[in-house]
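for the writeup, i need someone to sanity check this before i put it in the appendix. the sequnce is what the collaborator sent (i think, or maybe the updated version? ugh). structure was predicted straight from it, no edits. if anything looks off just tell me and ill rerun, i have time this weekend
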Amino acid sequence: MNDRHASDTLLADQDCRDLLQWALPRLGHRWEGYRKVRRQVCRRIAARMKTLGLADEVAYRQLLEHSPAEWEALRDCLPITISRFFRDRGVFDLLRDAVLPTLARSALATGQNTLRLWSAGCASGEEPYSLSLLWTLRLQGRFPAIHLDILATDVDTEVLRRAERACYPASSLRELPDGWLDLGFAREDDLYCLREAFRTAVHFLQQDMAAELPQGPFHLILCRNLVFTYFDEASQIRLALALAERLLPGGFLILGRHEHLPVALETLRPHAGRADILRKAG
């Protein structure tokens, strides 16, 4: 970080590192997850310090030690909002070719007509809307009797407002399959807004996974680049068990490409030899 930027944000990089390494364990998070993406968090903390009129990291740490309420404000600085449509394209290829057709066939065999999906940590809506696009443009014709009900949750109310607006810069759309930009979006000035037909299956809910989870059950849960990257091991184990409980038998849990469960669970088994794609027994 150059001197001008450090001055603008009140926090030199090393000062922010020191603060995060001290504070994150107290919030149930781990430094390793934030190491490469810390600047987003550091900017938020710097803005918070400026609002409070604090001069440096030492003053902010002293405030935290004497003001329990400030820990919640610090927690609000932690969400990482890196997202785009069809992020990790290979995962969506697997969803298209294997996971969603398997779930649809199982649903039909048991007389169901709705697949319940949960996008945990949905940020600005790119992931759940990608699911809606994928189903509508590639799979609905094969399974016309099946409908999707997609719940999308995030802790950050601001990104959820953007998700409900459903308008995105071109940079968020660069991994869309060929032709889908015109099929799925309408141009409005410098943004691309998702057409209404692809929004109706998606419902947003503000929720902090560290404190509460939707009841379920779900056929498919996507929990990518969140719990198993940023939360500490104890929280990861607790939430792995909770996610497994909310999956229907035969349902799938999708993690981030470089993530894995912190503990082996008898009910969740790797699918297709991948640690990031798990299927519930039964």
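Strands lie at 114-120, 147-154, 167-168, 185-188, 191-194, 202-206, 218-223, 247-255, 268-271, 274-280. The mean pLDDT is 93.
thx in advance!!
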